[in-house]
Amino acid sequence: MSTDKHYQGLINKYREYLPVSDKTPVVTLNEGNTPLIKADNLAKKIGLDAEIYLKFEGSNPTGSFKDRGMTMAVSKAKEEGSNAIICASTGNTSAAAAAYGAKAGMKTFVLIPDGYIALGKLSQAMMYGANIIAINGNFDEALERVIDISKNYPITMVNSLNPYRIEGQKSGAFEIIEALGDAPDYHFIPVGNAGNITAYFKGYEEWLAINKSTHLPKMMGFEAEGAAAIVRGERIMHPETLATAIRIGNPASWEKAERARDLSGGVIDSVTDDEIVEAYKMIASTEGILCEPASAASVAGLIKSNKTKAVKEGSKIVCILTGNGLKDPDNAIKYALADVKKTSADINDILRAMNI
Ligand code: AN7
User: Fold this and answer.
1) CA-CA distance, 106 to 249, in Å (whole number)?
2) Is the CB of 245 under 6 A from ligand 1?
3) Nearest CA residue ID for atom 14, ligand 1
4) Tens of pLDDT along 243-257?
């Protein structure tokens, strides 16, 4: 282990809770340790007298929570002697795989649904040097192909069906328990492929079992309405939502997400694109945090739950903001509806434009 004192990523911090040994070559970009931000303005805005915290996963090195799982998946792939990785992705997994693949010196293949990934994510995969294959099909089809290919070729699959991904991602729950001194009462989270809700619940269960917390939070997962397979109880062949990150119609961790819901007394529900956009804008304008549209599904879920009085006043609530809004500048500009005033460089023109 390194003797450096500075933070060196979640494997070094939580190694005793992870399936690693001294022989594991740790591939890290110092992911994790993300801020848990108290959101009093947001609480006031939605009229809920409770402690709301936003965990901003957009501050991870590639701008999403995927880095937590990818440091584990790529380190273990390297330990096992693999020299190539592959994933299907709505964007963030491909960015993380490409970055950790680059760091590890491994060949990286990413399959993406052509035309349905945010610009920033595509630019990341390109810059990190992944082999990008854009298929004429959606995420669910891409994942099926990736499973097939990884079975038949010596290429390690790093989607969240790879159990090391879940192991890394459960560290988010540890950080929340450390920050709050206990688990929160409610944990709101977007649901796409359902890996992250599975991972957080695993983290909460493991730390409850060793008395690092006193209870499990109610797991409150939210799918986009046009991609709400778990809510509807059937695979959606043509999922649609502006939140492309969660445009997923056949979640790989479907049963595990239902288990988290049922054992914690939580819910898996859906939010509409309009509700997602409302939350996306509200988080930015009240709290100064720009997340991506899919991430706002957690807060949209909280707003929806508050309207039906499904959350208790005075409780502690954590909403996971899974990805950075800078990844998706097209949607930011489209929905901000900002009035940009153009003037000459003359100070009088500028003052007139300032309207003061
Ligand atoms: C910002 O990148 O599936 O329920 O391929 O990017 O664990 O799938 C992304 C998912 C939420 C949903 N928020 O998490 C991918 C991918 C953001 C995301 C989710 C994703 P899961």
Assistant:
1) 30
2) yes
3) 192
4) 999 999 999 999 999
